[in-house]
Please model this.
Amino acid sequence: MPDFRLRVFQAVARHLSFTRAAQELYITQPAITKHVRELERTYGQRLFERRGNRVSLTEAGTLLLAHADEVELLHQTLTEKLHQLHGEAAGRLRLGASTTLSQYVLPAVLPGFRHRYPQVELTLLNGNSEQIAEAILSGQLDLGFVEGRSKSRDLHYEPLLADELVAVRRATPAGPPPEPLPLAEALAHPLVLRERGSGTLEVLEFALREQKIKLANLHVAFYFDNTEAIKTYLEAAPEALGFVSRRALTRELAAGLLEEVPIRGLRLPRQFEALWVQGQPLTRPAERFLRYVQLQYNLKE
Model:
């Protein structure tokens, strides 16, 4: 098994941040620093240059990273081949998912998958659709899950399940509008939206462009990097209107905290998709996970 200190070093090298490496590995930042210093003492070389808050690899660090990546790949290959002798899936599976998927779709299937495939070591990176695509292309992830319309020619996309964005606001005593609001009236409210690079914002922008409406001309009160923040903001802002995945609203609608606002002439369907590098076969754990997710949601749909 590769030295855990190498995994720590790789995480720091990927993020060029001791803090983000600690978040990825679920250990403290002092522990990250301790492991890196031990490696530097072992090899008698500085692996990182630290200037204030900026971190960069030294020449020795760059060389060690290349070899650490080779060691990791060899270990993963060996683990998979040994378990394939018994028809098992094993090894490390690095998943990435855009915010909606990582919060409201994948958590429901992770316990069942871990029970069925206990030899697979799972990690899940949360980011927006653009960040997940970049992480797949850079080799940081084995399998990603995103929503949106933009697609890279260097990535293979496989449809997973359908979703829909809906307009919501703080629940009112009168309840949801009995008739859909005119689009102009709905967009006159202060809007609360996801950040640039998110699949949610991309779907909304595309639909508005079809109506000859530019987002820049609207009153956007706030951009958030996660759906939970949007919902919490809306609960405290009676005049605001937000656009959120229907899959993220189950509890708030049932509790009477938020209410859906139908808008005339505006439908926002979208597709959740799995993605990986074009022309590159999935690892056995990644292939098993994708099929498991598809099976679970096909049964539920």
About this structure: The chain has a mean pLDDT of 89. The first strand starts at residue 48 and ends at 51. DSSP finds twelve helices and eleven strands in the chain. The longest helix spans residues 59-84.
